[in-house]
Amino acid sequence: MATDIIMPQLGESIAEGTVVKWLIPVGGAIQKDESLLEVETEKVTLEIPSPATGLLNEIIVQEGQTVPVGTLLARVERVPPSEVINRVGGVVVRPMEPASAGDQHHSPAVRQLAREHGIDLSQVKGTGVGGRVTKKDVLDFIEQSRVQTEIAAPGSEPSMSEDLLPFTQMRKTIADRMVKSKQTSAHVSTFFEADFSGIAGFREALRQSSGQGRSLTYLPFVVRAVTRAIRDVSIVNSSWGEQGIAVKKDIHVGIAMALEDGLLVPVVRYADRKGLNQLAKEIVDLAERARSKKLSPEEVQGGTFTITNHGGFGSLFSTPIIHQPQIAILGIGAIQKRAVVIHDAIAIRPMGYLSLSFDHRVIDGATADQFMAKVKHYLEQSDWEQIL
Fold this sequence. Notes:
Layout: E1 2-6, E2 16-22, E3 29-30, E4 35-40, E5 45-49, E6 54-59, E7 66-68, E8 72-77, E9 86-88, E10 91-93, H1 108-117, H2 135-152, H3 169-184, E11 187-195, H4 197-210, H5 218-232, E12 238-240, E13 245-247, E14 253-259, E15 262-264, E16 267-268, H6 276-291, E17 305-308, E18 328-332, E19 336-342, E20 345-359, H7 365-381
Parallel strand pairs: 14-17, 17-18
Antiparallel strand pairs: 1-8, 2-4, 2-7, 3-6, 4-5, 6-8, 9-10, 11-20, 12-13, 14-15, 14-16, 18-20, 19-20
């Protein structure tokens, strides 16, 4: 008896998804609720669990293909537990005999790649389960053939050396969004410098008294200062609409997070109602689940303002692109000790540059600077004990 694997509905407004990666091969076995494949939508990348225990009998939609919600992706054949006897690479598989030279049981992707390059698959050594030929095997065979051809023709001109990195669906989505944002909003940036010595002193005192300061990075303090400034300059928490400017009553702060293959912006909801500890916990939780691809689509939707911490690798200045349909994004540069003039004397303080990219259709420079002055004030003058 087979169980159909279909493209799930991953959010109310999502109509299609892209198969990023099958996590087990054809013929491999899977336990119910174990991750079977990665699916990417325009909002998020998720690991999809198997609805049943069995063997992945057939893959219908190959990696890289984008299909509508409800499309049949694969079939899992249910088998008695006694047939599942091996575990390879963390996945249970059924034992298979090594493929013979005349074995033609190749995946559609492998057959297509071989046809495109005129490859005889019987000449390719398979490294997959049971000797199966994989796409990597075919690509390696093509590369080896190219190198041998160049060696055999010493008088020929060497080809230009380069590596081609195919676009991932996430990279395509990010590219489309960034270009669309620049084409949509009238981007302008303004920069302020803030003194973080008050925050640094508070964190150190907290570390000395309870050790708690270690878990509080600068980011929760910035989130808190931003939400307080938004209360004062609410137009920053808005979006451009056909009928007018929609000023949001709730403050949902998106936190831009760099992943190995792209960028996600999970959202801290009602950020203005939360203290530093709760903000820190939620940010860490969102980051961990973003990296492990466990975020739900709803957790990357509905943001009203975005913060990006580009200073993590030492960057001082940035002009981030607005996350549509929002009208502003704040960047945090690296917090570094610098010589500054305080009361006509030179002092050493932990300083950081803050940038605000804003939509000039909605707010003018004076309003943006008023907002940033508020952020700077709350960072430098807040009594953090009261909002821990």
